[in-house]
Amino acid sequence: MEKLxxxxxxxxxxxxxxxxxVEISIPESRCExxxxxxxxxKEVKKLFSTPTEQGSLxxxxxxxxxxxxxxxxxxxxxxxxISALFNKKAESNFFIRTMKKFLNSSSSDVYESGEIDxxxxxxxxxxxxxxxxxxxxxxxxxxxPSAILGLDRARKAKLKGEEEYxxxxxxxxxxxxxxxxxxxxxxxxxDQYSLNSGIExxxxxxxxxxxxxxxxxxxxxxxxxxxxxxxxxxxxLGKLFGKIEKKLVSGKPVGISYDAIKVSxxxxxxxxxxxxxxxxxxxxxxxxxxxxxxxxxxxxRKDISACKHNDSGAFWVTDQKFxxxxxxxxxxx
Length: 333
What we know:
By secondary structure, this protein is an alpha+beta fold. It is built from 11 helices and 11 strands.
């Protein structure tokens, strides 16, 4: 097999990359068309082909973590449960808990934001729900995001003595999550546990014996290099894109952490999965699965190379834009 090394043309706007714009160009000879979905079994392909809407719930890291695991084991696992398990652990961390309270950036007590690699490592050798049993992509009436935030509102209402409103919110969440518990039983869990632990407890009990154990995996995260001489940076980027190519041609997605402001109006950190590559319009382009539903309205058209409503919630960016927006990749070796 050909050694997976790139020769990347790098042009600096100034003599030093520390002060000028870095321009990269992957040659067409190293940009063969790859569609990872063509390697997947029917169940996993369905997961990657179904648009996901994360709504106002910042669990994108859990969605990407679940996709990488699902592709690796050939079985769709629940992004919701993986996120809940991560948040449960985060909530038990004194430092994280204190920082959240200090920053007070959200009116919700639901923990949000996280790292793809940490979310995967947190569930290794643990039992997690299957996607069918605790789906994130059931978007009817808002689906899981609405249900989770509803449980937060219910718990706060209960603490204020607003029993009727609390029961109303629990009833809505119960229906959205298709939970078999009674409203009283859900209320007892929210009373007994902290919010994030309570959410995980409800999911865990709901899935029962249908959960599967995630095997040991080797997780690797790599920061996208930005500095160095022309020769040094070219070598580092060549190695990085070589690793991405190796995963894609083996039929496996690559997780990315990126700045959403580079392709949209959202000034926040975001994650997604690289699921394809193709040469068009004179550039090497990467296909990224996103979690903003199946529309293309969220993107700045000048910053992406393609987006179609039948692309199942994915968009394309050039190699240059990929370099500019992505700050870390995560893969299962």
